[in-house]
Amino acid sequence: DDLGWTDLACFGSKYYETPNIDRLAAQGMRLTNHHHCQNCTPTRSALLSGQYGARTGTYTVGSIGRFNWQSRPLRPVENVTNLSLERDTFANQLKAAGYATAMFGKWHLGNAPEYHPAKRGFDEAIESSGKHFDFETTPKTPYPKGQYLADFLTDKAVDFIQRNQAKPFLLYLPHFGVHSPFQAKAELVAKFKGKPGVGGHNNPTYAAMLASVDESVGRLMAKLEELKLADNTVFIFASDNGGVGGYDRPDGLIREPGKEAKGKKAKAADDEDGGGITDNTPLRSGKGSLYEGGVRVPFIVRWPGKVAAGSALGTPTAHVDLFPTLLELAGAAKPRQTLDGESLLPVMLGKAPSLKRDAIFQHFPGYLGSGPGLWRTTPVSLIQMGDWKLMEYLEDGRLELYNLREDIGESKNLVATMPDKAKELQTKLVAWRAAVKAPMPAKNEGVSGGEPTKKKGKGKKKNAKEIE
Fold first, then answer.
1. What is the CB neighbour count within 10 angstroms for residue 379?
2. CA 458, 462, 467, 468: dihedral to nearest 10 degrees?
3. 299-335 burial by CB neighbour count: b if 16+ within 10 A, else e?
4. What is each CA distance from 422 to 407, 410, 419, in whole angstroms?
5. The model's pTM
6. Strand 299-302 relative to strand 235-238: parallel, antiparallel, unpaired?
7. Mean pLDDT of residues grouped by 10 in the chain (468 residues)?
């Protein structure tokens, strides 16, 4: 949760220590061009349903009232926070195919009983997020006083594997780490204190949180090896969105002219997210942004003897690809809903040089604030086709075109120099929005000439903090 693209040693970090995840990558394949949504709930919705947010209506966390969109030209599309009961999850489909299914960790797709993962295809499910110590679980589950959440979840996961070793099983383990609040086991924090930072990777507590997630991966790998299940188990590791950082650079946030002092260091409005706890360099910006720092995430898959060890895949892939990949792996039936992704199995196994589709998409018809005059993103749609990425900002139709192979930091907008390529991608993006019936934000009638219309008796709303 909130793990950045470069936060793993096997993805470039020179400060954080992730020996178990690194070993997983050495034994499998790194997907280096994999994309999720800009924050938690929409990614999980896409993973579990196999659909883009334009179909599920889930674009962000919480309601549109979290941030002061009233000062902007557009009114956001209302956000759906519960995964519709009309959609099957990948757990539903694998359970129907004979798999024992379990989920332990952060759900974030509906708190009411009917939306709990135990009702969405998981035979066993314990939900917990929000705190790393003295945490609450749904359903209530006892644990030793002082236990760290990542360790508790791993205990449950290892026990599930032990009990289901003789049958096919699906284990979904969405850790709450490394999300704020930044809390870690004291002995691990001590390990990193005094270690020199490298770039924007320098926080001992964050490093210790990541070390606990790495310990979890190591324990799962060890259990599979002990039970002689490793060779017949597909092990996937990923993050839900980009890391919390990169906002203090000049291009890290979208700035309203005249609203922020020039050169003043940007600070994310989400104080519990630290305003920059890590750094996604060479990627631009971070969590909450549709630039690569917010949506490109580490993704590792291991299947000994099937997926080439130590390999890497640079093909653009996305969250919606997981569902069809799992269906093909398990020989499970398709769900009721349309699936937007494509199974990655042929390219993972080296049986196909490329995917059939030519592009992946994102659609975000809302706002994510980051302090007075600062926005992590305003309404935007994007298309990535091969090395090319086009972003269309919906307030004014502004286009940004980048070649990610040559400019992974998205520093050179090529729209003016390559208008034909921009037109080609925009045409495809518009056609995709029409095909999936993507809702568009409406004109904000309360704004005139770029300024909010003052209403008698009503003060200006303050930005809300992120509750993710």
1. 24
2. 120
3. bbbbbeebbeeeeebeebbbbbbbbbbbbebbebeeb
4. 16, 15, 5
5. 0.93
6. antiparallel
7. 98 98 98 98 98 98 94 97 97 98 97 96 98 98 98 98 98 98 98 96 98 98 98 98 95 80 47 72 98 98 98 97 98 98 97 95 97 94 98 98 98 98 98 98 79 44 34
